Amino acid sequence: MKKLLLAVLCLPALGFAADGEYQLTLKDHRFSPAEIQVPAGKKLKLVVLNQDSTPEEFESHSLNREKVIPGNARGIIYVGPLAAGKYEFFGEFHEASARGALVAQ
Hey, is 48 helix, strand or coil? Predict the structure, then answer.
């Protein structure tokens, strides 16, 4: 019984250190916010809400990520840990307007 209680009490310390979650909205083929400040050295969870009726492909060469997000849907993208710096991303289907960056500090 003591071992079970000890195991339950240790669970939060084993893997429940919540990763940072950041929301990015895509509307009218533009990301909002266009720039997100994030902590360097931490894993991140980007939740991308596509409020347009058409799909968009989140793409970032510097983050080494790409993901198609259907219209009126959400996508989740994990990145990091990141070194300090600026990591640009864009919407491949509307590259002229759908642009943004993560700034790790």
Answer: strand
| pTM of structure | 0.79
Please, how many CA atoms are within 13 Å of residue 46, restricted to the half-sphere of its CB? Answer: 30
Query: How confident is the model over 54-88, as pLDDT tens digits?
Result: 999 999 999 999 999 999 999 999 999 999 999 99
Peptide bond into 81 cis (omega under 30): yes
Burial class (CB in 10 A: 0-12, 13-18, 19+), 18: exposed
Would you state the structure tokens that stand for residue 52, as one six-digit string? 């347009």
CA distance linking residue 98 with residue 31, whole number of Å: 6
Structure tokens that stand for 33 in this block: 């916010």
Contact 97, 29 (CB under 8 A): yes
* CATH 2.60.40.420 is the classification of domain 19-104: yes
The rounded distance, in Å, linking the Cα atoms of 66 and 62 is: 11
